[in-house]
Design a protein that fits this description.
The complex is a heterodimer of chains A (436) and B (397).
Chain A (H helix, E strand, L loop, with lengths): L1 E4 L9 E4 H23 L2 E4 L7 H5 L3 E4 L1 H10 L3 H11 L7 H11 L15 E6 L3 H14 L2 E6 L10 H23 L5 H23 L12 H11 L6 H20 L4 E2 L2 E2 L5 E6 L7 H9 L3 E6 L19 H11 L6 H14 L4 E7 L3 H4 L2 H12 L3 E6 L9 H24 L1
Parallel strand pairs in A: 3-4, 3-5, 5-6, 9-10, 9-11, 11-12
Antiparallel strand pairs in A: 1-2, 7-8
Chain B lengths: L15 H16 L6 E4 L6 H7 L2 E4 L6 H7 L9 H8 L8 H4 L3 E5 L3 H10 L5 E4 L8 H22 L5 H23 L10 H11 L4 H16 L10 E6 L8 H10 L2 E6 L17 H11 L9 H14 L4 E7 L9 H10 L4 E6 L6 H26 L1
Parallel strand pairs in B: 1-2, 1-3, 3-4, 5-6, 5-7, 7-8
Helix pairs in contact in B: 1-9, 2-8, 3-4, 4-6, 7-12, 8-9, 8-10, 11-15, 13-14
Classes of the chains: A alpha/beta (436), B alpha/beta (397).
Pfam family, one (chain B): HGD-D
Protein name (chain B): 2-hydroxyglutaryl-CoA dehydratase
Family (chain B): Belongs to the FldB/FldC dehydratase alpha/beta subunit family.
């Protein structure tokens, strides 16, 4: 059930995609057109971020959701982020600032043309749902200066003690009631209807079940999916503008059926070069990918028969492994709990637990950390995490460094060299274990 | 250039007894064998009133500036950490860390920025550490209620460390004492509004440093006579070029920029908008009613760090302070990889420009490799300010 799509102009070769990947791409394209049409259609635009995305709430106000970091990713994938980053540095932003921020600001400076080739709309409101990425908070300060629009923040307390307390939930619900909802009502002119929110949350929960099932299908051998490179496609709708919609339910049902079929046929993941022939290494990956060389980066894995069976990055927009689902019976509390649970809001021991559990549950050969040069939120503490996961699981770990969307910081030869050494190390461990 | 870690800093003679007192207090913190627990904290949003009320020894952990300590911290971090957060980790290194840090029994950290959040989690492997939440929106009722709850958790945690309960009255008494200390330090700073201030920027940083190591009673007993002496100094002599330093934390041990400006170039730092300078002393706490609400409100209402929202509050406070102290130029310094001040620097610089105050932007670290560059840039900046002053005199004539 795979389709072959010819990429226009820039693509060096044909890219093979699952039907679900093509479906996802169409959904995203429609969303970008909806955004570009907003000034004409009169739809109000709410800019917000993936971690802590409150799409179900935003939809209650008939607003359309715009995610600046997804725009930066799209610019990275389309090789446009490099000039944007440079433009931003020319304006005066430091070299060490998050490159999502600089790509976005550079894109604005160069006319704010989105991935569909059309101008992105100015936001009517900036909804900063803060879930641990400090730079995101400052990013919105810069955007507010640019757009002079209303800004509202939802502060998610950090899980420093590793647990959610009733005080945290109450604090967040109060912020939603006293500040976030009134602001969205004022900007949109639409009165808040909690029953509408409940409906959206019901739809979310349904899609979340299938989404989790797909991610957990990687426990099969061979894994029918790549839960990092492929996972980025799979999380798109649920992390972006579709959670809480019928489109999302339909997409995840479709995706699940597709993956069920792959399991039935004993197939591995689809890669841009077709089905992965043989699974040699099963990895857990921590950290975001590089987007400027996404396909080249992925190829370094599948050429060696390495498949990623679980990743932390696919949990930044929501962690569902531990039972959380949006709950229509407790709508505001459920939004709070969702934000508290996202990966970037988890403390170091929780992250280590998650990664070590993934290695055991998904029977992985080891942990690979892709440390992002300009991402403080993810990268800080990763060396410690690596050592701790190694200690707990006895599995080898490796560390590479790239960047999100700054092409200057992707050193292909270095990365490839380290990956090859890592795979050799896994082989060595295997032979030692076999000999023992 | 003198590093405060290794030898006497270039302070005015009047400040040397204060320096000696701080050093003695640190020695006691490290070496005392009386069974009193030692608590450390990082951020100016941590209320030391509670630590004092519990009777534990306490110190703000902001010693940094040494490249060796940074290197210790780098064993656990990557490039995305600022040198201060690396130093905080490096200070706890069992073999090559800082004795003051090694003596700490428990660390408390109110969640400020992403680097310090993660640094405190790394430090957790060396010493028990509690990370507490700090709201970002101070104008919301929900923030104040939640922060009050966090402060109560903080009280409970300290009580456990101290092995005894802490009464509300003890906390209220400490609020009164610390307010006195804050007011006195603020009055020292007021002396810098004079045309020729009787204390240098380095001197003031030493006074501010004392606040984080000395018990308030000891501080008041030492600082009050010094204030009387300095305030009696006549305001005459040449008016130096007046500068403000704004931006990231200036650590205890990172005095090289201030020494360069004051000792080598001859300008004067008359005010600081950073959390180890004047900023934390511009507010006092309510002294009546519920002490936890007073702490929550007081610390949220203090002059804001750029980690708080909205950023305008920080930017306007900085500009206001520059006006109040009649500065002729602002040196905006941020540590490389500082998400608070690195990302937002343009907002500050644009605002300073709108006020007509020239600003010099410096991105810094603790490598000590850029002294020549810094000197060239600072000299050029002060030269411009001298020219402006001369132009203003000509225009007035």
């Amino acid at each position: 059930m795979s389709t072959t799509i010819i990429r226009p102009n820039s693509a060096p070769a044909e890219i093979i995609r699952d039907a679900s990947m093509s479906k996802q791409k169409d959904m995203l394209a429609r969303h970008y057109d909806r955004l570009s049409d907003a000034p004409q259609s009169g739809e109000k635009v709410c800019a917000t971020f993936v971690p802590g995305n409150l799409n179900e709430l935003i939809m209650c106000f008939d607003m359309v959701n715009n995610l600046p970091e997804v725009n930066a990713i799209q610019s990275g994938l389309r090789k446009q982020s490099g000039p944007y980053v440079l433009e931003s540095e020319k304006i005066g932003h430091s070299e060490d600032v998050c490159t999502y921020v600089k790509s976005d600001i550079g894109m604005m400076a160069k006319g704010n043309i989105g991935p569909n080739g059309r101008r992105m709309p100015d936001p009517d409101v900036l909804l900063l749902s803060y879930t641990g990425c400090f730079t995101f908070m400052k990013w919105f300060e810069l955007l507010r200066e640019q757009y002079k629009c209303e800004t509202v923040m939802l502060h998610t307390p950090y899980l420093g003690d590793g647990k959610i307390t009733p005080e945290m939930i109450q604090y967040m619900v109060k912020q939603l009631k006293q500040d976030v909802i009134p602001t969205l009502e004022r900007v949109s002119g639409v009165k808040f209807d909690i029953d509408r929110l409940r409906e959206n949350l019901r739809r979310s929960a349904k899609a979340e079940d299938d989404h989790l099932w797909v991610l957990q299908s990687a426990k099969n051998k061979p894994s029918p999916i790549d839960a990092y490179f492929g996972g980025i496609y799979y999380v798109g709708p649920i992390f972006g503008a579709f959670r809480g919609t019928d489109d999302a339910i339909e997409y995840y049902k479709f995706l699940r059926e597709e993956v069920e079929e792959r399991i039935r046929l004993g197939k591995g993941p689809v890669t841009p070069d077709g089905d992965m022939p043989r699974e040699k290494y099963r990895l857990v990956v921590e950290g975001p990918p590089n987007y400027t060389h996404f396909r080249q980066f992925w190829k370094m894995f599948y050429d060696e028969g390495a498949v990623v069976v679980a990743s932390s990055y696919t949990k930044v927009g929501g962690t569902y492994d531990y039972g959380f689902r949006h709950d229509a019976d407790n709508p505001l509390e459920s939004l709070a709990e969702y934000c508290l649970n996202v990966y970037t809001n988890r403390n170091l021991p929780m992250r280590v637990d998650m990664l070590a559990n993934y290695i055991n549950e998904y029977e992985a050969d080891g942990l690979l950390i892709n440390s992002i040069k300009s991402c403080n939120s993810f990268s800080a503490g990763q060396l410690l995490m690596m050592r701790e996961v190694e200690k707990r699981t006895g599995k080898p770990a490796a560390f590479i460094e790239t960047d999100l969307v700054d092409p200057r910081y992707f050193s292909a030869a270095n990365v490839k060299n380290r990956l090859e050494s890592y795979f050799q190390m896994i082989e060595q461990k295997r032979s030692s274990s076999a000999a023992a | 250039m003198v590093n405060a870690h290794t030898s006497l800093p270039s302070l005015s003679p009047d400040l040397l007894p204060v320096h000696a007192l701080i050093e003695a207090e640190q020695k006691e913190f490290i070496g005392a064998e009386d069974g009193v627990q030692r608590a450390g904290y990082f951020c100016a949003y941590t209320p030391p009133e509670l630590l004092a009320a519990a009777g534990v020894r306490h110190a703000r952990l902001f010693k940094a500036g040494s490249p060796e300590i940074v290197a210790n911290g780098e064993r656990f971090t990557q490039s995305v950490f600022c040198d201060f957060s690396k130093s905080c980790i490096g200070g706890f290194d069992k073999n090559e860390g800082d004795p003051l840090y090694q003596a700490v029994d428990k660390v408390f950290n109110f969640h400020t920025c992403a680097s310090m959040k993660r640094a405190s989690e790394v430090i957790g492997q060396f010493v028990p550490t509690t990370l507490l939440n700090l709201p970002r929106l101070r104008d919301q009722a929900a923030s104040r209620e939640f922060f009050r709850e966090e402060i109560i958790h903080f009280r409970d945690d300290i009580a456990e460390l101290a092995g005894r309960a802490i009464s509300d009255d003890e906390i209220s008494a400490q609020i009164v004492l610390f307010n006195k200390a804050r007011r006195l330090i603020q009055r020292f700073s007021e002396l810098r509004k004079r045309a020729n201030p009787p204390l240098s920027g380095k001197d003031f940083l030493e006074l501010a440093r004392g606040y984080y190591y000395l018990p308030p009673e000891k501080l008041l007993a030492t600082y009050q006579p010094l204030y009387e002496k300095l305030s009696a100094v006549k305001d005459d002599g040449k008016r130096p070029i007046r500068l403000m330093i704004s931006g990231s934390e200036m650590a205890d041990g990172d005095r090289r920029l201030v020494e360069l400006i004051e000792d080598e170039i001859g300008a004067r730092i008359v005010v600081e908008d950073h959390c180890t300078g004047l900023r934390p002393f511009t507010h006092t706490l309510r002294e009546d009613g519920d002490p936890f609400a007073a702490l929550a409100d007081g610390y949220l209402d203090q002059a804001p760090c750029a980690r708080m929202k909205p950023l305008d509050d920080s930017v306007h406070f900085s500009g206001g302070l520059a006006k109040e102290y009649d500065v002729e130029g602002i040196v905006f310094v941020y540590l490389k990889f500082c998400a608070c001040y690195g990302v937002t620097k343009l907002e500050f610089l644009n605002y300073f420009q709108s006020l007509g105050i020239p600003a010099l932007e410096i991105s810094s670290d603790y490598s000590h490799s850029d002294h020549g560059q810094l000197k060239t840039r600072a000299e050029a900046f002060v030269e411009i300010l001298n020219d402006r002053r001369a132009d203003a005199v000509v225009a007035a004539d």
